[in-house]
């Protein structure tokens, strides 16, 4: 059976696409032009209940989650640049921190467990 190989793109509406692209480039290192080459690693595909409060605003239909190598360093870097970031939280698959882009879109930063730890968690769900 054929299957997808990964996320090919994330597309969303913006009031000021150019300014928002510059913010993502400056603060998260996502290039303005051309593709964003990701490092191999886990990706979670998880629909949420339509009445979830997890994304923030009720009309918010999506939330992006970016994997990071060092969550503490990333949070510090963002805060030093004046970006508001919630304190990191630890969950069973790693550590997370939440922020919002200038247009209010929620972003979650994820420092996953190492591969062996993630496999143990995955096996526990089987």
Helix-strand category: alpha+beta
> What is the number of E strands?
4
The largest sheet has its strands arranged as 1-4-3-2
Q: How many strands, what sense, and barrel or not for the largest sheet?
A: 4 strands, mixed
What distance separates the N and C termini? 21 Å
Would you kindly provide a written description of the structure presented here, covering whatever features stand out?
- There is one protein chain.
- The protein is of the alpha+beta class and 126 residues long.
- It has a domain at 45-125: 2,3-Dihydroxybiphenyl 1,2-Dioxygenase, domain 1 (Roll), CATH 3.10.180.
- It has three helices and four strands.
- The chain has helices spanning 17-28, 71-80, 115-125; strands spanning 64-67, 89-91, 94-100, 106-112.
- The chain has a four-stranded mixed β-sheet, with no helix packed on it.
- Strand 3 (94-100) and strand 4 form a beta hairpin.
- The two termini are 21 Å apart.
Topology:
Elements: H1 17-28, E1 64-67, H2 71-80, E2 89-91, E3 94-100, E4 106-112, H3 115-125
Parallel strand pairs: 1-4
Antiparallel strand pairs: 2-3, 3-4
Protein name: VOC family protein
Domain VOC: 6-112
Pfam families: Glyoxalase_6 (PF18029)
Main attributes?
126 residues; alpha+beta; 2,3-Dihydroxybiphenyl 1,2-Dioxygenase, domain 1; four-stranded mixed sheet; 4 strands; 17% strand; globular
């Amino acid at each position: 059976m054929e299957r997808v190989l990964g996320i090919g793109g994330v597309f969303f509406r913006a009031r000021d696409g150019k300014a928002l692209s510059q913010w993502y480039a400056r603060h998260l290192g996502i290039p303005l032009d051309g593709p964003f080459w990701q490092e191999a690693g886990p990706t979670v595909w998880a629909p949420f209940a339509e009445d979830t409060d997890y994304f923030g605003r009720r009309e918010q239909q999506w939330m992006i989650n970016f994997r990071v190598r060092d969550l503490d360093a990333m949070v510090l870097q963002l805060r030093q640049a004046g970006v508001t970031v919630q304190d990191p939280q630890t969950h069973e698959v790693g550590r997370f921190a939440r922020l919002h882009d200038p247009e209010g879109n929620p972003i979650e930063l994820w420092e996953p467990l190492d591969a062996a730890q993630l496999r143990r968690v995955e096996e526990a769900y089987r």
